[in-house]
């Protein structure tokens, strides 16, 4: 079991590493790994301190870079998961059945 990072920057670095692994899992549609990694990111996110008062200027810049990388990974993850989620929604919510008359009308168009 890994120890939880203690400094805010190390938390962001670990979140960045996990988000990169999440993007890789999404690319190969490994949803179980993606889910497990997302839980780990949530634990780290909840451990982040409020505010930036204890960060130096260099750490603030590093934090900004790390957050941008995390957001880039998140965008890639969404590109892979949204189509899958749409298929799941379509499966769970099929269109209402139409009468035979309505089906003939639709084919006639």
Q: Can you offer a commentary on this structure?
A:
This protein has four helices and no strands. With 109 residues, the protein is mainly α. The chain has one domain (8-108): Methane Monooxygenase Hydroxylase, Chain G, domain 1, CATH 1.20.58. Helix 1 runs antiparallel to helix 2 (31-47). The longest helix is centred in the last third of the chain and has 36 residues, at 57-92. The radius of gyration is 21 Å and the shape is elongated. The mean pLDDT is 87. Pfam families: FliT. InterPro entries: FliT. This is Flagellar protein FliT. Its main location: cytoplasm.
What share of residues is helical?
Answer: over 70%
Task: Give start-end ranges of low-pLDDT stretches.
Answer: none
- The CATH H-level homologous superfamily: Flagellar protein flit
Count all strands and give the number: 0
What overall geometry do the principal axes of the alpha carbons give? elongated
Termini gap: 62 Å
Mean pLDDT: 87
